Amino acid sequence: MEHQFSLVTHVVYFGAGLTLMMAVEQLASRRRNRINYISAAMLCCNGIITLGAGFFANGVQMAYPGTTFLFVTSIYLTGPLNLFYYTALMDPEKQIPARLKWHLVPPLAALICEIVFQLGPGGWKTRILAGLFTPESFHPAKSGVIAGAVLCIAYLVYLTREAITVWSNEKIRTETRIVVGLSVAAVATVLLFLAGFLGDVKSLYLAAGITLTAIHSFIFIAHGRHPEFFQLLKREIREKKYRTSMLRGMDTDALHGQLVALMTDECLYRDYDLSLNTLAERLDLTPHQLSRFLNEKLGMNFSNYINSFRIAEARKLIREDPARSVISICFHVGFNSKSAFNNAFRKHTGTNPKEVRRNSGGR
User: Fold this and answer.
1) How many other CB atoms sit within 10 Å of the CB of residue 235?
2) Dist CA 153 CA 328 (whole Å)
3) What are the tens digits of pLDDT across the range 186-206?
4) What count of Cα atoms within 13 Å lies in the side-chain half-sphere of residue 353?
5) Exposure pattern of 257-286 as b/e (b: 16+ CB <10 Å)?
6) pLDDT tens digits, one per residue of 204-246
7) DSSP assignment of 276-311, as one string?
8) Across the chain, what does the average pLDDT equal?
9) pLDDT the model gives residue 363
């Protein structure tokens, strides 16, 4: 049993070393940018946490209190760094907003506390660590560690939700599932560590370390074999955000009412030359904004939206005016060919005009 415990500990230490080397790789890149620096900081924090899991599992911190330095700070810093990384990934040219930098206040406070702790006398540090890692007692510093873990989970959950926004996209469904899976594994890691910390269970520390090692090993291999892996996901999330921002601040209910009025009062759909650009101009929108509104809010494209009004009127005329020919109705409602009319009619109703007329008792 001791041999297995020692073997697992060495695997955790390997994971810490691998993660820290990945951080060095980010800094060694010839074309370094903001994303490289944020990635390096994230990987350093994860490496310190992985190393700490191995140390705590073996009780190293009690003999060498210096080994705990930056551990709590790394827990507090991981969440904001993930948020900064996501923000930079979505818009590489834009500076990180000042309001987001307030997220660094809790990690800074944790760092100050850790520096004060490390500068204290040896006996004092040992007593504090004994209180921290003894399940039966509750030291005030315990609440700080617990708060850091909870904050880290909150950040991870938020970023997981962002990835899930493109879950329905068939092109990147595999990438989305993998990223969400990695996020869930990261949350599980924090929970394992927290359970080990509260109960002083050595095996849970190692389980957290092994999970982190597996996550970073997978990222290391995936990045080497498929460098474009995360690029697809990044592009789709960015486009999703862009589409949403195009409609932000717009009174979509009023816009919908104005659009329906143009269709029902002015019967604009009867113009077979009607285009997306023409309709957008009437609504004082850009074609892109109108297209996004139809897709995001109404769940259909421009052609389907216009044809829905045309087919509704065509069905009404077929039933109420049996003396009128189908081809006449076709041109009246805005179609410029019988084939286009029949295709749209079948798509919207599941049948053809003649069948509707037959069922309504017309000739």
Assistant:
1) 15
2) 64
3) 999 999 999 998 888 889 999
4) 28
5) eebeebbeeeebbbeeebebeebbeeeebe
6) 999 999 999 999 998 888 776 665 555 555 555 555 555 555 5
7) HHHHHHHTT--HHHHHHHIIIIISS-HHHHHHHHHH
8) 84
9) 44
| Integer Cα distance of 61 and 63 in angstroms | 5
Structure tokens at 12: 């955790």
C-beta separation of 240 from 234 below 8 A: no
Q: How far apart are CA 84 and CA 80, in angstroms?
A: 6
CA distance linking residue 69 with residue 49, whole number of Å: 10
CA dihedral 297, 299, 301, 302 (to 10 degrees): -50
Q: Is the dihedral of CA 287, 245, 37, 210 positive or negative?
A: negative
Alpha-carbon span 86 to 74, nearest angstrom: 18
- 363 C-beta neighbours (distance < 10 Å), count: 6
What's the token pair of residue 1?
């049993």
